[in-house]
Amino acid sequence: MLEGNGSLRTYTTRSKEIQFLSSNDERISSVISLIGTLAYRIHNNHYSFMVKTIIGQSLSSKVADILVNRVEILCKGCVTPQAMKNIDKSHLYSAGLSTAKIKYIEAFSDAVIESPDYFMLLKNLSDQEIIDSLIKIHGIGSWSAKMFLIFALDRKNVLPYEDGAFIKAYSWLYNSNKLDFKSVEANCAKWRPYSSIATRYMYKLLDYGYTKSNLRDIGLG
Question: From CA 198, how far away is CA 171, in angstroms rounded?
Fold first, then answer.
């Protein structure tokens, strides 16, 4: 996911969340020792984040970043519901967006325009209620909703087993080919109530290229 530009969050080995994860999962403990302090910024422009998430559905991060950049240029750097509505669809096609994704973004923009307090109302809901609310909008599924929970709302206990990048890191770390959601959820139950924080460490494994190495070569075997 693209780095946010909002509040900075930092977790060190002294943080209760990190101590909890380290004491409950030996593998995650090793990853934490390998990576160290976890620091990130939250995405505070929720509409823009969701548009970028919709664009990124089923695409590699590299391709998604290219398309997002093109859309930002079309919006003159300000991705808002009205700005997106004002862009001629032909320009979005030329930017590389599919017909389906253009419709998804349009449906989401309409929902936000019709309810100006949409995101404020979401903040007061539970994780599952937020997922249920978002997936009612055409083109938004569980994956997109969970990305919103983790990266925009900074919810602490979200397990994105629908995410290909997460599954790639998970499979490597646990040397497992049992990747159905029930197996993954059961194995990651020990992360609760800090599943999102553990998940961020999983993404760091990918970002730093560790998953291209043998576990034993970096002391995780």
Answer: 14
Each residue's pLDDT tens digit, 198-207: 999 999 999 9
Taking the C-alpha atoms of residue 218 and residue 122, their distance in angstroms, rounded to an integer, is 41
Question: Which residue type does 152 have?
Answer: A
In a shared domain, residues 36 and 53? no
Considering the domain architecture, whether residues 98 and 166 belong to the same structural domain is answered as: no
Do 111 and 72 share a structural domain? yes
So what's the pLDDT on residue 191? 98
Query: What pLDDT score does 192 carry?
Result: 98
What is the percent of the chain where pLDDT is above 90? 93
Q: Is residue 56 part of a domain?
A: yes
Statement to judge: residues 147 and 184 lie in one domain: no
* Residue that the structure tokens 């770390």 belong to: 173
Residue 45's identity, in one-letter code, is N
Give the number of domains in the chain: 2
30 within a domain of the structure (yes/no): yes
Pairwise CA distance, residues 209 & 221, whole Å? 16
Q: Do 166 and 208 reside in the same domain of the chain?
A: yes
CA distance 180 to 195: 17
Instruction: Specify whether 98 is located in the same domain as 147.
Output: yes
CA-to-CA distance for 92 and 34, rounded, in angstroms? Answer: 42
Q: Check pLDDT > 60 for residue 2.
A: no
| Burial (Cβ within 10 Å: 0-12, 13-18, ≥19) of residue 76 | exposed
pLDDT of residue 101: 97
3-state secondary structure of 159: coil
